[in-house]
Amino acid sequence: TYEKVWLIAALLLIVGFIATITYGSVGLGIAMIDDSEETVEPSELDEDFGEPRVEHVGENEYEAYVIAQTFIFQPDPIEVPANSKVTFYVTSRDVIHSFSVVGTNINTMVIPGEVSTMTAEFDESGEYGIICNEYCGSFHHTMEGQLHVV
Ligand code: CUA
């Protein structure tokens, strides 16, 4: 029946999406390791999450605590050394934004009250633009930052 055909078509589409995502995470010397989410109450953001910063947590391992707010990312620039593994913790101080590193597969929604986490490896030095892909207000299109791998 036609219903079955559509069902199979929908399943193939889903498999295709997964394959695309998997394929997308290879290349550029940037490897995504995991994605997870935790929560932080907006009222306790400064206390629990702390200041925007990059911490050196181990040999070649860094943690970047990034806060998005209209219409900036902090810290700016985010600076990490080449040949490092960086875990990004990203949250928002106000509305929904995204944290999207141009030319990489680092791209996550940033939701107030939640911490988006992702880990990436940077083999080579380079400069990347960071943009916001979620409409967040009249200056959404100007919201940008920099990631410097030095
Ligand atoms: Cu922040 Cu669009």
List the helices and strands and how they pair.
Blueprint: H1 2-24, E1 30-39, H2 45-48, E2 53-58, E3 61-69, E4 72-74, E5 78-80, E6 84-92, E7 97-101, E8 107-110, E9 114-122, E10 126-131, E11 144-149
Parallel strand pairs: 3-6, 5-11
Antiparallel strand pairs: 1-9, 2-3, 3-4, 6-9, 7-8, 7-10, 10-11
The chain binds dinuclear copper ion (CUA).
The site of dinuclear copper ion has 8 residues, from loops.
Quick gist of this model?
Helix content is 18%, strand content 47%.
Q: What key phrases describe this protein's structure?
A:
single chain, 150 residues, alpha+beta, Immunoglobulin-like, 5-stranded mixed beta sheet, 2 helices, 11 strands, binds dinuclear copper ion
Describe this structure in words.
- By secondary structure, this protein is an alpha+beta fold.
- Helix content is about 20%, strand content about 45%.
- The chain is built from 2 helices and 11 strands, in the order H-E-H-E-E-E-E-E-E-E-E-E-E.
- The protein has helices at about 1-25, 45-50; strands spanning about 30-40, 55-60, 60-70, 70-75, 80, 85-90, 95-100, 105-110, 115-120, 125-130, 145-150.
- Strands 1, 2, 3, 4, 6 and 9 form a 6-stranded mixed beta sheet that branches. The protein has a 5-stranded mixed beta sheet with strand order 5-11-10-7-8, with no helix packed on it.
- The chain starts with a helix and ends with a strand.
- The mean pLDDT is about 90.
- Bound molecules: dinuclear copper ion.
- Dinuclear copper ion binds near residues 71, 132, 134, 135 and 140.
